Amino acid sequence: MEERQEIAETMGRRIARLRRKKKMSQRDLAARLGFKPAFIGRVERGEKTVTIDHLLVIANTLEVTLDYLVYGGDDARLKLRLIFLQDLPQEGRDKLVEFLDALLQAYRVITRLPRSA
Predict the structure, then answer these.
(1) Which of 18, 35, 105, 117 is 20 to 30 A (C-alpha) from 44?
(2) Distances in whole angstroms, Cα of residue 113 to Cα of each of 23, 33, 87, 99, 103
(3) CA distance 26 to 62
(4) Quick check: pTM over 0.70?
(5) CA distance 11 to 58
(6) Whether 24 contacts 16, CB under 8 Å
(7) Cβ proximity of 30 and 39 under 8 Å
(8) H helix count then E strand count, the chain
(9) Angle 36-53-68 (CA atoms, 0-180°, nearest 5)?
(10) How far apart are CA 15 and CA 87, in angstroms?
(11) In Å, what is the CA distance from 3 to each residue of 24, 26, 33, 48, 90?
(12) C-alpha of 21 from chain center
């Protein structure tokens, strides 16, 4: 699966989980945001990517940070490593991403986690 698609699907599931936690339907969330319910459904299924402006509105409405919507948490250890990775040459980043993907795959196999857990 393409990385961008996987991110969209993971973020969509996160939005759906947060919406349900607040006991809101897709229609409720759409009304608060000024969107159509079908748009919310497509976002939650990862079929539609959204602009940063839309993400900010969604995050504020669901009372979470943008960081949480995108990354799923605010683990400072991971943020520091991401900053370090951004400073590497592209070739180094590519190799590290491949390595991390392999580690994550091995972890999923060992722990039998769902693909996008």
Answers:
(1) 105
(2) 27, 33, 31, 19, 13
(3) 12
(4) no
(5) 11
(6) no
(7) yes
(8) 7, 0
(9) 95
(10) 30
(11) 29, 26, 27, 14, 17
(12) 17
Distances (CA, A) of 93 to 27, 50, 77, 84, 89: 41, 26, 18, 10, 6
Contact (Cβ atoms closer than 8 angstroms) between residue 78 and residue 70: no
Amino acid 15 reads I
Residue given tokens 């986690």 in the structure block: 113
Residue 27 amino acid letter? R
Q: Per-residue pLDDT for the chain (117 aa), expressed as one digit of tens each?
A: 577 788 888 899 999 999 999 999 999 999 999 999 999 999 999 999 889 999 999 989 998 888 888 877 666 567 667 777 888 899 999 999 899 889 988 888 888 766 654
